[in-house]
Design goal:
120 residues; alpha+beta; three-stranded antiparallel beta sheet; 2 helices; 3 strands; 18% strand
């Protein structure tokens, strides 16, 4: 059985994509205005627990992740449901915002551009 690394073909001249389309994308999620997403160890642990929960709910394969203080990289592949990855990212962001709000008692943004009720 040949590995996918041995079966890389020539890239398409128009799109620049060859067989790379078979590889899952690197998804990056940043804090609002690149603010910190993780301010202490519990934040990382909370994110990973939520990732574990929601990847099972949406039946996703998580191949790798890299959690940095102000952003996250995920390599995730959906099986059949194309909306599963955006839903996962929405859930992870929402839970992380709630965690930060509870941690420091102030409102964080979800990146939607809406103001929180306290800041109106």
């Amino acid at each position: 059985m040949d590995s996918v690394y041995q079966k890389q073909g020539d890239a398409d001249a128009k799109t620049g994509q060859g067989d790379c389309a078979q590889f899952p994308p690197d998804i990056v999620q940043r804090g609002h205005n690149r603010q910190p997403v993780f301010v202490e160890r519990r934040g990382f642990e909370c994110f990973l627990a939520n990732l574990q929960e929601w990847k099972q709910v949406y039946e996703l394969n998580v191949f790798s992740y890299c959690l940095m203080t102000n952003h996250v990289h995920l390599v995730v592949q959906a099986n059949d449901n194309l909306s599963a990855i955006p839903r996962l990212m929405k859930r992870l962001a929402g839970r992380q915002i709630r965690f930060l709000n509870a941690l420091d008692k102030r409102r964080h943004f979800s990146g939607t551009g809406r103001q929180s009720p306290d800041e109106g």
